Amino acid sequence: SSDLRARRWLEGELGRARQVRLQDAMAINFLSESVRSAGCDSFADALLTLEGPEGDEALANLAFVGPAAGSCWGTEKKMDALFFELSDADVVAFVDAMMLPYRPGGVQGNQMLRNLVIRSQPVSDGAVVALCALLDDESSVLESLDLQGCEISGDGCKGLCKSLNANTTVTSLNVSWNPLGRKGGLALASMLERNVTIQRLTLANTSLDTQAVVALYSVLREQTTLREVDLCKAVLFSRQEDSTKHAVAMLGQNASIEYLDIGTSQLADLGASLLAKTLRTNTTLRCLHLRSNQIGIVGGEALASMLMQGSALVELNLSGNRLSDDGAHAMGTALANNTTLRLLDLSMNSINDEGLASIAAGMGENSTLTTLKLWGNHFSSGSDAVNAFDGLLRTRFDALGVEVDFTTYTVDGTTMIARV
């Protein structure tokens, strides 16, 4: 029968899909072809014919990844991915299938699906509306929705937010790399005023404008459920003063956010200094990412002073800024005194041997940092800094289990450094 053929196909193809590696993504089209040969109208129909534990596992975690995702897939997810391009008709058919009984007992697919990834797919606003039916279904158990890079517009995001207003199951939402614009950003801000379950929100590279990001920061001041917020390069264009003061005010009031990424937000020295002042009294934030923010010596010294005087931070990412030697010297002094930080990323900060030597000296006194990233700065072969890190790698770092993004080696009596 067609059902038997579909079940056998799915058992075989899911097994094959689990063995697929990222480099093969561009060539994979066997899934859609196999659906046709199995006698099913869509992949979703074939999926629902699978019974038993295999079917339960497949339905709980689904990922449909378009070829355009390339190597960005797999670095953060531990899910099997099915690599082929979805059409709008495929999305509608998938949603319809999820609403049908999965077993003779009447359990629907939507009562099994907990994590859904549709990434790097050209999803139209109409397809987004179809997906909203999964959120509106009272029997839904969906916990994580990842729609990264799906070309969702502001109108599509507005429809999605309408369904999320009263949703009580979704705890993680990723709509990064979508052109949401002002309309989408304002819709998200309005939704966050009502939603009480989302804990992780990813909005990186969403082409928001200043009005939208200010609205988001205003809502986040009083938000009590969000734990992780990613706004890296969320604003298409903004002057430094437009959003910085709102981010600072938010951190001064919010008592729930533990992870914040505001990389590529044009904070500069003034923004970093204001953040440093606020973070001295913030006892909730644990991880702060400030990469590529044009932070120079003044901002670096302010952040270092904050680390010395006490902070709840355990992770600080300052990669791609402009700390130079003076900023690195301040960080080295902070490392010698700080006992809470576990990860520090100072890669690509125009730091020369003098500043690197100060960081090495600070690490000689630090016993709590477990990850240090410095690659992309200006190490000179045989310099005091390279020799100091060579000694630390052989002794203190090895004993304490400190991970770094470089290694040392010796050629003709001269200590060299290389990336790992």
Account of the protein in words:
- The protein is an alpha/beta fold and about 425 residues long.
- It has 16 helices and 15 strands.
- The strands form 2 sheets. Strands 2-1-3-4-5-6-7-8-9-10-11-12-13 form a 13-stranded parallel sheet.
- Helix 11 (about 270-280) packs parallel to helix 12 (about 295-310).
- It is elongated.
Brief sketch in words of this structure:
The chain is of the alpha/beta class and 420 residues long. It is built from 16 helices and 15 strands. Helix 10 runs parallel beside helix 11 (268-279).
Give the helix/strand layout.
Layout: H1 2-19, H2 30-37, H3 43-47, H4 52-60, E1 61-65, E2 82-83, H5 88-98, E3 115-119, H6 125-136, E4 144-146, H7 154-164, E5 172-174, H8 181-194, E6 200-202, H9 210-222, E7 228-230, H10 240-253, E8 259-261, H11 268-279, E9 287-289, H12 297-309, E10 315-317, H13 324-337, E11 343-345, H14 353-365, E12 371-373, H15 384-394, H16 396-400, E13 403-404, E14 406-411, E15 414-419
Parallel strand pairs: 1-2, 1-3, 3-4, 4-5, 5-6, 6-7, 7-8, 8-9, 9-10, 10-11, 11-12, 12-13
Antiparallel strand pairs: 14-15
Helix pairs in contact: 5-6, 6-7, 7-8, 8-9, 9-10, 10-11, 11-12, 12-13, 13-14, 14-15
